[in-house]
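Record type: monomer structure entry
Structure origin: computed from sequence
Chain ID: A
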Amino acid sequence: MILVSACLCGHNCTYRGDNHHHPLFARLCREGRAIPVCPEQLGGLPTPRPPSEILNGDGYDVLKDVARVVNSEGSDVSRFFVKGAVATLDVARRVGACRAVLKARSPSCGSGKIYDGTFSGRLRPGDGVTTALLRQHGIEVCSDEEYLAGQGADDDSESC
């Protein structure tokens, strides 16, 4: 069993209130081979919501309370991101997931690259809050882009 960002399965849960639907992920969720999760909704954030980015660090730093997740209005929303990461880890444990395919570049789900905290569209190395927590607990995480590049859109494999 794998976890998949709910937006990839067609759930309208992005900050804009839309999704990043991809037929492969939607099918895996529909067939019960993947569990859709939205850490930001699980953390209590509304949809739609102002976009957020990690300021002065990455997800590991947010978990250590030395960096913050702020939204475009300047509000510190770190507690929602941490709460959502913990809830996502709980889901992973309950369903026995050892892998997750999460949305690239997100402050929750980003894997390897996240936005730099300036809301300018620039990327920098780092993981989102949920990705960091899952990795700290031995769960393999890859982005949707990595998964699709490695597996191909017609592959039924549930591993990264």
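Annotation 1: The chain has one domain: 2-151.
Annotation 2: The CA atoms of residues 69 and 132 lie 14 Å apart.
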